[in-house]
Amino acid sequence: MQIALAPMEGLVDNILRDVLTRVGGIDWCVTEFIRVNDRLLTPAYFHKLAPELLHGAHTAAGVPLRVQLLGSDPVCLAENAALACELGSEVIDLNFGCPAKTVNKSRGGAVLLKEPELLNRIVEHVRRAVPAHIPVTAKMRLGFDSPDGALVCATALAEGGAAHIVVHARTKVDGYKPPAHWEWIPRVQDVVKVPVFANGDIWSVEDWRRCREISGVEDIMLGRGLVARPDLARQIAAARAGEEVVEMTWEQMQPMLHEFWRQSVEQLTEKQAPGRLKQWLAMLTRNYPQAVELFTALRRETGLEQVGRLLGMTHPQPVAQS
């Protein structure tokens, strides 16, 4: 069984990846998508979005990081995939699941599920461009506005050379509305010979158990559920091993919040840092009543010293320059 941390644009950046992977239970994580248009990106651009590449493509906790690319040009994607490998990525992931309108308008993400032949060409080009020992993987949704083409798309990806496929069990039009349609995942697994990962609506150990029963697959990718419950991967790993599941307390969360804030102040601008903290706190409110109180107290605060004091930190760090 593998448990992966999902790529979530605008949410799971290198700071949150670092903090979440310290908890345990996560086997690997993925960058936010790196958009590829019509040119070869610079190493500096890759390092900006994935600074872990400067440290062996692992987080500080030693969890491997995979670079994810998004685009529709097979040749450009292949060239950038080759560069990502040169920079240290040991796996190349391809995004065919992003539902954002701005991304889809630029022929990126889930809109490509309308073109299974293009999916196949993209994976083939990338597969040929990277070293043979580097796996090429893909993340998809069930379709754009209907799951009717899910099996064709999954087959196209697998035949193109995808080593595994992560299936977010919703269509693009579904967005993030519950429920996730886990019942489609075994149908996908039936038509491909590569491993399929289940993704979508796994918020708890009980959700994981139901997902495993319905989907029939062992491997999972956790997104919002892990951000809202940082020890979810660890809980699931314990449950899978037949061990006692011990939930992280709010008190145990404090060092994580402090480390997140410290890195945010170091790496982000004075305007960005409080916003990113509030974004994470808003998700933590799903499982921690204390997060509601802290979020309410911080809602209108923008000053670094005030935020630090409310977190119980007396020595805020200097802010990165914009």
What does this structure look like?
The structure is a single chain. The chain has 322 residues and is α/β, with parallel strands linked by helices. The chain has two domains: 238 residues, Aldolase class I (TIM Barrel, Alpha-Beta Barrel), CATH 3.20.20; 61 residues, no CATH class. Helices cover 43% and strands 13% of the residues. The chain contains 14 helices and nine strands. Strands 1-2-4-5-6-7-8-9 form an eight-stranded parallel barrel, surrounded by five helices. Helix 5 packs parallel to helix 6, helix 11 packs antiparallel against helix 12 and helix 12 runs antiparallel to helix 13. It starts with a strand and ends in a 12-residue tail after the last helix. 45% of the residues are buried.
Can you summarize the main beta sheet? 8 strands, parallel, barrel
% residues in beta strands:
5-15%
Low-confidence stretches: 316-322
What is the count of distinct domains? 2
Helix content: 40-55%
CATH architecture assignment name of the largest domain? Alpha-Beta Barrel
What is the overall number of helices? 14
Q: Give the CATH level 1 class of the largest domain.
A: Alpha Beta
- Looking at the structure, the CATH topology of the largest domain is TIM Barrel
CATH homology-level superfamily of the largest domain: Aldolase class I
Number of DSSP-assigned strands: 9
Task: Give the helix/strand class.
Answer: alpha/beta
Please tell me the overall pLDDT.
96
Evaluate the radius of gyration: 20 Å
How many angstroms does the end-to-end distance come to? 42 Å
Q: What is the H-and-E element order?
A: EHEEHEHEHHEHEHEHEHHHHHH
Sheet with the most strands: spatial strand order: 1-2-4-5-6-7-8-9
Q: Label the overall shape.
A: globular
InterPro entries: Aldolase_TIM, DUS-like_FMN-bd, DUS_fam, DusC, DusC_C, tRNA_hU_synthase_CS
EC number: 1.3.1.-
Pfam families: Dus
Protein name: tRNA-dihydrouridine(16) synthase
